[in-house]
Amino acid sequence: MSNTKETINEINKRRTFAIISHPDAGKTTLTEKFLLYGGAINMAGSVKGKATARHAVSDWMEIEKQRGISVTSSVLQFNFEGCCINILDTPGHQDFSEDTYRTLMAADSAVMVIDASKGVEAQTRKLFKVCAMSHIPIFTFINKLDRDAMDTFDLLDDIENNLGIATCPMNWPIGSGKNFKGIYDRREGHIVTFSETQKGTKEGKETFISLDDKAAIDAEVGQEAFDKLTGEIELLDGAGAEYDLDKVRAGQLTPVFFGSALQNFGVELFLHHFLKMATPPTGRTSSDGEKIDPLERDFSAFVFKIQANMNKAHRDRIAFMRICSGRYDADKEVKHVQSGKVMRLSQPQQLMADERKILSEAYAGDIMGVFDPGIFSIGDTVCMPKDTITYEGIPTFAPEHFARVRQVDTMKRKQFVKGITQIAQEGAIQIFQEYNTGLEEIIVGVVGVLQFDVLKFRLQSEYNVDIILENLPYEYIRWVDNEDIDMSTLVGTSDMKKIKDMHDRPLLLFINEWSVGMTMDRNKGLVLSEFKKN
Ligand code: G4P
């Protein structure tokens, strides 16, 4: 059965994106402002008034409360200008995890927030790399223009040189810091100034000034700032990349916007343009290479994240799915392709800013969390019973921190192995073994160091097992892609370590990038990869 007109309409309204940034660039503040426009919350601060509301968003693990940070990601949905927007919240603190990367696999585009005084920072670079891998469109919001900013041209160069993506400024800031007057909208050809906003409201008034309106420019912008703007725009028109929607949608060109999330300058304008340029849900590819059309095909979805212990009263797990095609109807049974089981999804829900809403229907582009009776794994596909679609798995991302795990009480061997394998199956950690050792010598790899604490905490509280973690100095991991390689003949550097993952695939750990290169040089034909398709 193909989809109804209503379903097609609903799908076309969806815009599903993630916000990527380095901590403190303003991701939370920007999200908060977006939600204000959608009317999803009434007062800014509901996303994160540090002490309270951030917990409300994902008050799932005890450890989050103890540390006052969000370990998990959630999804926020709201309507604006006829679109139904899903924002995938990616944990943004220093200790982000593999889930942050996986969440990006569920997005159709990304908004990259950059602090105007700092330019591209480390975490932005990492997240960008993952987005670039799936060629999703990336929209840049350069934030904090109300503070002294780097030179605008330098900011654009920084993005191009650091990330290797062409930039196309959609608007241009007029001054920064105390002298921030507003922006010039290049497409409309007018200046937009903003009145002071009251903290926490969207009421700040925008004024549009035509370039011919001398009097208004004098009053609102000032001649000096206007002359500087004119010079910069001339330069930009001559040298900058031209706007090209195809390139934007192919992830080759990032449209750049300037503003201040805190003061609500340029946020609505950004959202307005972004919704026009961002694509409705894009089709995902099945493992046999077929692109599944979101509008044509019946319901299908893939699991991108599994969250344990959402409810302290039960040991429950929630599997997060991205719907890839059609419409989900709670009254109908679906098939879990990997097990062949036909079933009704249990308690499908959508996570709003501070509540969970049980869903009766959802559409391609939407994210839903369903109760997992222990059958789902990351990357699994769910579709209608009559269909068989298997989506390409989610890649295994390279961990960046490693530790050897030792048990305090070796009598609890069984619980330890069970616990650590289950946690690894959920994808919170990756476990590795050295050659010639059994499961008593486990090396754990994580994307963010916080996951070590999560592991320790969960083994203790759920499996009653205490562990000691001995940090290892490795920072680079590469899977060996050559088939039938004899690992004993591989010659590396003295500080290289040969290990295997849980699927017995060989890999190498290195302390620095130099060793990676050296090992490549010493072994002709060696193929190493940073991501591994499961
Ligand atoms: P994040 O989620 O990317 O980590 O950043 P977040 O929004 O939490 O913002 C980090 C800090 O930067 C916050 O200040 C926030 O108020 C400030 N900020 C965000 N956008 C802007 C902006 O456009 N201009 C200016 N000047 N500041 C901005 P804080 O003092 O760390 O936190 P809070 O006490 O204000 O919550």
UniProtKB/TrEMBL annotation:
The keyword Nucleotide-binding applies. Pfam families: EF-G_D2, GTP_EFTU, RF3_C. InterPro entries: EF-G-like_DII, EFG_III/V, G_TR_CS, P-loop_NTPase, PrfC, RF3_C, RF3_dom_3_sf, RF3_GTP-bd. Keywords: Cytoplasm, GTP-binding, Nucleotide-binding, Protein biosynthesis. It is found in: Cytoplasm. One of its GO terms (biological process) is regulation of translational termination. CDD domains: RF3, RF3_III. One of its GO terms (molecular function) is translation release factor activity, codon specific. Residues 12-282 form the Tr-type G domain. GTP binds at residues 21-28, 89-93, 143-146. Signal peptide: none annotated. GO terms for cellular component: cytosol. HAMAP family: Rel_fac_3 (MF_00072). PANTHER family: PEPTIDE CHAIN RELEASE FACTOR RF3. Increases the formation of ribosomal termination complexes and stimulates activities of RF-1 and RF-2. It binds guanine nucleotides and has strong preference for UGA stop codons. It may interact directly with the ribosome. The stimulation of RF-1 and RF-2 is significantly reduced by GTP and GDP, but not by GMP. Belongs to the TRAFAC class translation factor GTPase superfamily. Classic translation factor GTPase family. PrfC subfamily. This is Peptide chain release factor 3. It comes from Butyrivibrio proteoclasticus (strain ATCC 51982 / DSM 14932 / B316).
